[in-house]
Give the backbone structure.
Amino acid sequence: MLASLVLASPAAAQGSTSDQAEISGAPAAAQDTDRLVCKYELKTGTRFKERMCKSFKEWEAQREQHRRAAHEMIDTPKICGGGGNPEGC
């Protein structure tokens, strides 16, 4: 019985690394970028979530687009002055 546990442990360790790659969201190989990934997103005005399915590559492109937009809003200088509320301030 002890020998079977010792022999089974390397196989179990190998299986856990592939599971961790799937859990982290990182593709295990280049061909996995085309796999379909579904996520639930909250919609404004409702407590229900909507299921969104896209390829892994599309999710990464959307994440990069959102990251660039956030950096653009932060990095763009805003000059506000004078009376009223000028556009963009």
Observations:
- Residues 35 and 55 are 5 Å apart (CA to CA).
- Confidence is low (pLDDT under 50) at residues 1-24.
